[in-house]
Amino acid sequence: MVTSAAKGRTAQSEPDYVARAEALAEGFAARAAEHDRTGSFPFENFRELSEAGLLSLTVPAIHGGAGAGARYTARVLGVIGKADPSTALVLSMHYINHLVMARSPTWPVRLSRKLARESVDGLALVNALRVEPELGSPARGGLPSTIARRTETGWRLSGHKIYSTGSPILKWYLVWARTDEAEPRVGQFLVPAGLPGTRIVETWDHHGLRASGSHDVIFDDVVIPLDAEVDVRKPQDWRAPDVAQAAVHTVFVAAIYDGVARAARDWLITFLKQRVPASLGAPLATLARAQEMLGAIEARLAVDARLIASFAGDFDDGVALSAAESNVIKLTVTNNAVAVVEDALSLTGNHGLSRTNPLERHYRDVLCGRVHTPQDDSTRIGLGRAALGL
Questions:
Q1: What averages of pLDDT result for each successive group of 10 residues across the chain (390 residues)?
Q2: Which of 286, 268, 270 is nearest to 344 (CA)?
């Protein structure tokens, strides 16, 4: 639970960090279309985030970070997500890992302090590498093919990870792997980027979030220290979800796609005010249909804002949350965000789908919200089974 002192520190820093994010967002938005077109990684965005002190937003204050909680961090991610969701996604994974390691009793203190201080001092991002070609999403079960073999001098890691978001800039990988022991254990190993035997294969050529650098990472007998083992357990010990991680992942992902929807809404408003068809002789904004659909967009965005703020606030206040509730928040907000952009497209027709206008890019980006764990079908099945008592 957040102490009153911690709340006070966060409250004092909130306007400053949000203002910093807003100041950077204009430049991020101006560069977003080119990064999307070329699929290039926005290295400059992260240099600016580091210089602004925003990479250490969720690092505990005791280690020099801002010590921000979920509600405030979601606000920052919403600002960045509205400008460039690829940048926001990489940033959110970094934030999630720092929040989790600060709260987790299983994280080795020496390692968590090291990563915290590096994030404060410079450009040092971390993300978890979990998904594999054969395994798919670990959330759906199965043992990873990535293997950590223990030797007298260290672990030797071999495997293939896909969808490794932020791979061009990460300094640290949290690699999901199994041991080669007679009874395999499964969990995370902390691996510095760039070790011999590690290579990034630039496979990311996606419909949306094209600048997220979510490439493949290959590990070929990579040697890491024995104390690089972060949290490795028997497979059955991972069956219960990490509610804290699920909660922050849910609300941060939701904030990003809510930001995309708000960018689409803002462009739509400008379009409706400026577009004057000859047959109408007045701006599209004067049409009742346009006003009604924009009103529906506003309603969805209002619901999303309330869900994100209240859920993140409950997390910060130590309210007991469930993984099922987290999943519902993600499902509702991301689908509302998709509906917002689809409504905007229905009003703008060919203009909205033209690559000369940003709405087409917002649509491709917002659809990615449905891909993140947990996917909609898993959430609905889980809710249905719970309602049936199964």
A1: 41 70 97 98 98 96 94 97 98 96 89 96 96 70 88 95 98 97 94 98 97 98 95 87 89 98 98 94 95 98 98 95 94 98 96 94 97 92 95
A2: 268
Residue-level pLDDT at 106 = 86
The secondary structure element, H or E, covering residue 162 is strand 155-164
pLDDT at 128: 97
CATH architecture of the region 129-238: Beta Barrel (2.40)
Give the separation between CA 340 and CA 343, rounded to whole angstroms.
Answer: 5
Helix, coil or strand: residue 208: coil
Q: How far is CA 300 from each of CA 30, 99, 251, rounded to the nearest angstrom?
A: 26, 29, 16
Peptide bond into 374 cis (omega under 30): yes
**CA 304 to the chain's CA centroid:** 17
B/e letters for 322-351, b = 16+ CB within 10 Å, e = fewer, are ebeebbbbbbbbbbbbbebbebbbebbeee
How does strand 215-224 pair with strand 155-164? antiparallel
User: What was the pLDDT predicted at 138?
Assistant: 55
CATH of domain 4-123: 1.10.540.10
CA distance 266 to 263: 5
Token pair recorded at residue 148? 């950590």
Is the CATH number 2.30.130.10 carried by domain 243-388? no
Q: pTM of the prediction?
A: 0.93
Q: What are phi and psi of 2, to 5 degrees?
A: -75, 130
Dihedral angle of Cα 258, 262, 263, 267, to the nearest 10 degrees: 150
The pLDDT value recorded for residue 348 is: 95
- Cα separation of 106 and 285, whole Å? 56
Note whether 50 and 105 are within 8 A (CB).
no
Q: What is the pLDDT of residues 149-190, one digit of tens each?
A: 999 989 999 999 999 999 999 999 999 999 999 999 999 999
- 10 Å Cβ neighbour count for 184? 16
Domain ranges of the chain: 4-123, 129-238, 243-388
The neighbouring-strand residues paired with 147 are 158, 178
- Would you say 245 and 92 are in contact if contact means Cβ atoms under 8 Å apart? no
